[in-house]
Every structure is written in C-alpha cells, then in structure tokens.
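Section 5.1 Outputs to date
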Amino acid sequence: MKIVIIEPLGITPEKVEETAKAVKQKGHEVIYYETRTEDTTELIERGKDADIIIVANLPFRKNVIEHCQKLKLLSVAFTGVDHIDIDYCKQKGIMVCNAAGYSTNAVAELAFGLAISVLRNIPSCDSITRIEGTKAGLIGSELYQKTFGVVGTGAIGTKVAFIAKAFGCNVIAYSRTERESVKQQGIKYVSLEELLKQSDIVSLHVPFNDATKNLIGKEQIALMKKSAILLNTARGGVIDNQALADALNTEQIAGAGIDVFEMEPPIPKTHPLANAKHTVLTPHVAFASQEALYTRALIVFDNIINWETGTPKNVIV
C-alpha cells in the first residue's frame, strides 16, 4: 500500500523514519512531504494514488478527497477533526482515525502558561525590564485559592482541572458528559451560566462543532466577573472573538490568554484580539511540544497497523 504523509509532522525526517519503521517492515511505501500547501491542485497530486493519507491540521475537504480514488484510511495527526470533511469520508467508506491523547500534557501546560502570564503580567514585565523599568503598575494576582472553571472535561480539560487543584484552586466544571474521576477529586459540576458567574479563571476545552460555535459570546462574557480572565486553547470558533475583544477593551473582564483563532496563524494585524488590551496571544502552539509531536507520529502509524489487522483504534468514522 502507498502511505502519503501529505504535510509536515513537525519532527525531523529521521524521526519520521523511526516512527514509520513498523509499516515499512510490512512492505508499505511511505512518501513524506516536508512542505505544507493548501493549494488544491497540489494536494490532489500528492494524494491521488494513496491508499492511506496522514494529515495533521491541514484543511482536507471533499474537493481534494474526491480525487483520491484509492483512499481507504485518513490517519489524522491531530485530536480535533473539524478540518476534515467527515461526512464525505463516511459517505465514501473512508475510515478516519485521530491521534487522541497525544497533546494532553502539552495543551494543559500551555493553558497554565497563559493563565500565569496574564495574571502576573509576564510579557509586560519582560518588556519593561529590558528598558530599565520597574514593577510599578504590574503587580498581578495569584492562582492560589482562585475559582478555576473548566469548560469541557475530556482528557485535556480533566488534566487542566487536576493541575488547577494542585495549584490550590477551587475547581468547578461544566461538561456535556460528567466524569466520575473528576467528581472524585472534589470538583463540582455546575451549569455553564453558574461557572461563568463564579469563576476567576475560565478555561475552554471543548471541540468545535455546531453546538459549540460561539459558545462564549457577548451574553456569556457579560456573566463573568470584572476581575476574571478567559483562556482558550481549544478551538477559535468557540468564542466570538469580536465580543471578547470589545469586553477586554472596555475592561468588562480583566484579561485573556488565547492560542486559537478562527483561522490558522498568521492572524492579520487587524484581528480584534491582536489589538485588545490585557491579552496574551500565542500562534496555535499549545499542542506543539517536541514530545507531543513525536507521540502523535507514533499514534498515526499505530492507527494504520491496527486498521490493517482489523482492530482499528481512535476511530472517528
């Protein structure tokens, strides 16, 4: 079979070779493209003869998939799959597997990096220190004993909740599905409205779909404390970013730490959040630690092996 890695995986070619060893030993051909493109013609050319395609967060839609006549499996090197045309894959009998769990630690850790950066004014402290400044006007707040609200208690949200407990926070959660393991840690589930009202820090960990689009909009932000901060390491579309920028600029809430946007970075200089006050932005980097990127490569090839043996894992459709 021909396996095409249609975009870079963020690890060295040597690491790709290492993680692909097991499928190559089975006699499969592996083609690795080390450049990213969103050009439809080029993507069709890359994937047209592939039995299996490995894709990360590159948008992969019907206009490309329909030309990949041999395609049987999409092994997605990502947790979310909203960039994949899932309905069309289901219609054509193409299995889609994701890399569930590869970035749990990486995303959770960055959420706290953002939280502390906002609460303690770290970017501003860095800038002022370099020009002979002092801490004047930059005294921040601690995480300790703050109410930390986690929206979505999947693997990443649960990890964030447990870390928040270790920081000494009072943790509350809202999720469509409640986990006993979360409750056993003394974490109380509440409604989204109550979470927004009570929390000093709100951290979002939900997938992007029709139910979560603009989950946090003007009305929801209005429920938050003036001293609260909002963190998003989930998907850009779960927040109305214009409403968030307006709230930040009018100091309706105290700050935000944002890693994801409506589009993949680079975001335009005119983006509402690029010019919002009290905001720390990162370019969709939460998932991208060296360890996580290597782990996801292992998972996508393991997905292929399990699919081939008739015991598929991490199946989306």
